Every structure is written in C-alpha cells, then in structure tokens.
Amino acid sequence: MHPWQLSGIDHQPFEALFESSDDALAARGIVRRRAGDSGGYPCRVSLTDAPAGAELLLLPYTHLATLSPYRASGPIFVQRGATRCVLPVGVVPAYVQRRLISVRAYDSADFMLSGLVCQGTEVAAHLDRLFADTTVAFVQLHNAGHGCFRARWIGSATRGNDVAQERDRRRAAGVTASVFVQCGVKPAGRASHA
C-alpha cells in the first residue's frame, strides 16, 4: 500500500475572486484566462487540466508559507467552480503523469530534504521511497520546466538599465509568470500540511 495521498488546494479562498472585475483582479496581480484547446491550464484545486473554454484565474499563491529559508510562492491556475480534489491513497493525477515533475521533500521544520526531477509516470515510485523515510513530513510537486527561479537574464549590458521597461513590455504583451504544479502530498494518516 502507498503511504501517501495527493490533494488539491482549498477552493474557498478563490471563489469570490471570480466575481471581481478584471481591473480589481489586476490590482491584486491576478489575470483572468480562458483555457485553450491545447491544454496547459492545470487547476491546482481540481488536479486536472481545465477543459477548453473554461474560465480560470492565474494568480500568485504562497505554497510554502513558512519562516524557513524555503518559504516559496508562485503562480497557479484555479478554474471557476472547481472544488478541492482529495485523491484516493496512492493515486497520481493524469495531469501530473503527463509532465516532467520536480519532487521536493521537506521535514517538519519545512527544510528541504530532497529534490529530484522525474517523468510524471515515475512520481508514485519516488513518493513511496520518500515516505519510507520517517523524517519526510510532506512533499511538493512542481512542473520541472517552469519550477523555480534561478537567475534573471537581461540580455546585454546595454539592456541592464532597461529592467523596468522590459517588465512593462512583458506585461503589456500579456506575458505572465511561469506556472508550476503545486499539490500537497502528505503521508496517508497524517495531518495535511497545506
């Protein structure tokens, strides 16, 4: 039996946001989107790729609210009307299995113990191995391709003075932050961290 269970994040904090105007959302760093035909809009509440045409919000989310150096946040998609998905023990959702995934294990003090990148189809085996270690309190999964900040590339020395202009250009073009898969993974039978 698998010693872990995956769950989406709570939908309740996001419900009222869908009723906000686009201007009100923008003031909070949130963007309304419609899912396209080609996928790529993974809802962190339902743990599924949103169907074409579905309304989503792309918003900043603190996925590790801690006082450790590993405090972290990043952009997520939340689909209108989605409710929190708690999968059966040992089940990895299809939208995780289709992606390259970063698997990050943490201890009870929110310090990272392990980090690896694998195919989504290998996630279950890695979770089994990680949770065999009793020091692992929880694991987070992220899309490896858009997972974490490393450095900012400006381009050339002459562009170094144009950081604000580049940011404004990207915003005007509708370019938003990267996307990661965030779903809480907890040992089965233990209290959820998220």
Characterization of the model:
By secondary structure, the chain is α+β, with helices and mostly antiparallel strands. It is built from 5 helices and 10 strands; from the N terminus they run E-H-H-E-E-E-E-E-H-E-E-H-E-H-E. The chain has helices spanning 12-15, 22-26, 94-97, 123-131, 163-172; strands at 4-7, 31-34, 42-43, 48-49, 55-64, 72-79, 100-106, 112-119, 138-143, 183-187. The radius of gyration is 18 Å and the shape is globular. The chain starts with a strand and ends in a 7-residue tail after the last strand. Mean pLDDT is 82; it is low at 156-163, 173-183 and 190-194.
Observed structural traits:
194 residues, alpha+beta, five-stranded antiparallel beta sheet, three-stranded antiparallel beta sheet, 5 helices, 10 strands, globular, disordered C terminus
Which strand order do you get reading across the main beta sheet? 1-10-9-7-8
Q: Care to count the β-strands? A: 10
How many helices does DSSP assign?
5
Unreliable sequence segments: 156-163, 173-183, 190-194
Write the layout of secondary structure elements.
Layout: E1 4-7, H1 12-15, H2 22-26, E2 31-34, E3 42-43, E4 48-49, E5 55-64, E6 72-79, H3 94-97, E7 100-106, E8 112-119, H4 123-131, E9 138-143, H5 163-172, E10 183-187
Antiparallel strand pairs: 1-10, 2-5, 3-4, 5-6, 7-8, 7-9, 9-10
Gist of the model:
This protein is an alpha+beta fold. The chain is built from five helices and ten strands. The two termini are 23 Å apart.
